[in-house]
Amino acid sequence: MSNIVKQLIPLLDRVLIKRAEAITKTAGGIVIPEKAQSKVLHGEVVAVGPGSRKDNGDFIPILVKVGDRVLLPEYGGTKVSLENDEKEYHLFRESDILAKIEN
């Protein structure tokens, strides 16, 4: 993980996720065109905010942690491009994450 990602700390219940790479080649070596590739619906948690707040000001902890693999919705999230980093990241609210994938 780059130092730039370590400097980015999501606010409240936001989670920074690096989407998994799309499969561009089959096991037999056939290259899949971009338009035929399916959208990647899972990724890895890179950074986590402190959580949302209750009415009394206490934080509600987030259920995912850095390094967790999660299932994402097809649409949603905010695309984040970091300088000097060619990877693409997305910011999601914790409530938008569909599931946590156990190894």
From TrEMBL:
Family to which the UniProt record says this protein belongs: Belongs to the GroES chaperonin family.
GO molecular function, one term: protein-folding chaperone binding
Annotated HAMAP family: CH10
Species lineage: Eukaryota, Metazoa, Ecdysozoa, Arthropoda, Hexapoda
Keyword hit for Glycoprotein: no
Organism encoding this protein: Pararge aegeria aegeria
Protein name: 10 kDa heat shock protein, mitochondrial
Keywords: Chaperone
Cellular component per GO, a single term: mitochondrial matrix
PANTHER family membership: 10 KDA HEAT SHOCK PROTEIN, 10 KDA HEAT SHOCK PROTEIN, MITOCHONDRIAL
Pfam families for this protein: Cpn10
